[in-house]
Structures are given as structure tokens and as C-alpha cells.
């Protein structure tokens, strides 16, 4: 006897399963939502980072963090030496100059002239000289800073330039030119306080001549230096160092000569030199302004008058020479 069991399998009712479109939607929609969430999260993180940077970004008018730019374990001379030997020889980068200038604390006024006041300041425990120009003398300040930053200008008998910067608090503007500080001050003041020996006179005279010779000399090459004439050589523009040598300062009237084009770069300002030290051809306006040699000769004439001042204060066995 054969027993057969029949099982009836009914087809699923229509509409009880997911169509391919619904299945694709179920898979794609959550995936898209996850992607959108990830993108929004990344944007939010990036926005937070930007806000953090902006919140901690220093105002360009505020003092810069010298710890990040200037090594505090080096003195100014080492810093300047490193910058000049590893770079173009034109001095410190502008940002470093600004950092140094804005962290200087002025101590005392040490001199005043027609175009500014000179202060002794402190930077990281070191003395520096700060020449402060008013905004009316911006051309003189800019020109002097430009000349000091001439490539290959640095020399032991040229005043060591450190930085140039402008100070603006909204109501007034000061233009700063920062240089090395020499406690003896100008040769004019030094000779008024002391007499010099013959040996001291020779040392001073040689160093003055060496500084002027370096200015006048053109250095040929890709990192060369143009010839420069000072145009205001006088004892007040020469400083005396601790070792008894001198440095040439105040280059605001200096002219540069391009030998390739024979062009003389003359500053556009209203300053004039000191008449007492001017060569006769400058006083009577007969100097050849198109000849750079004329400017060099005028410097030598002025240097001769400075040498006369030196000789006037030279003593031999307690008696002045003249």
C-alpha cells in the first residue's frame, strides 16, 4: 500500500516582498547618510581648526614673539654675523628686524639733532642705540635704512645696523633705526671730554679712513656692493668704540653709484650737509653732480677737517699739538 503525502506550497502573496528598487534604496540611503555625516564632521573639524588659528594669530601691529624668530642664547653680534655670512650680507630679515625693534625698551635719551633723537635702549640685556625720526622725516629714515642694508656694506669701521621699524599707536608715528651702541658717543663729544695721544690719534685716523675707503670702494660680483659717498662727514657723525677705533655713522645723505650705467642714486630729501665741513666746490655750487668722483673728493675734504680736529686735541707730554 503506497502512502503519498501531498504538500501544497502556495506562492507568496503579491506585494509581501521587497522589490529591487526598495532593496537598493535600503542599502544606499544609510550609506549616503553616513557619507554626509563624515563630510559634515570633517568640515566642522576644519572650521574649528581655522577658528583656533585665527584666535591665536597675533595682530601684526602687536609685538612679535621673538622667541620663535630670534635665538635668545645668541648676542646681537653673533646673530648679525650669522645672518650676514649665511645670507646676502644685507642684514637681518625684515621680520627679525621688526621683532627686535618691538622688544626694545628705551632707557635714556643720549642725543638730539635736526632730524631725530637718539636713545639708549635694551634688547635681551644688551645696549642698543635707537635713532628716532618723526613721521615728517620719513624720507631720511627710509634712505638711511636703505643704505645701511646695502649688500656687503658691513665693516668694522661702519656703524653696525640692526633694524628699522615704524611705531604707530594711532595718534603718532615714530620711525626707528636701531644700531650698535657705543658708550663713548660721537668723536665730537669724545674730543671735547678727552685729549688723545699720538698713538690714539693715529688709530682713530686710520679707522676713519678705513671706513670711508670701504664706503667708496665698489665690490664687483653678483653679491657686490656699489660705491657709496657719505656727503656728511663730520666729527658728530663718527662714533668712538671701546677699543679706541671709530665707526662712520649717519648715512642718510649718502649717494650710490652704479658703474654699469654710470647712474648716481641721489636721495630725494631736503637735508643738506654741514657747511663747516663742505668742500669749496659744494659751497659755491660748482660741483659736478654727474661725476661720482666729485662726491668722493668732497668726502676726503671733509675727512681732512676731521683729522684737523683730531690733531687739535692730540697731546704730547701734556701739551696740545695746536
From TrEMBL:
Its EC number is 2.7.11.30. It is found in: Membrane. The chain crosses the membrane at residues 23-45. One of its GO terms (cellular component) is plasma membrane. Residues 104-322 form the Protein kinase domain. Belongs to the protein kinase superfamily. TKL Ser/Thr protein kinase family. TGFB receptor subfamily. This is receptor protein serine/threonine kinase. It comes from Cyprinus carpio (Common carp).
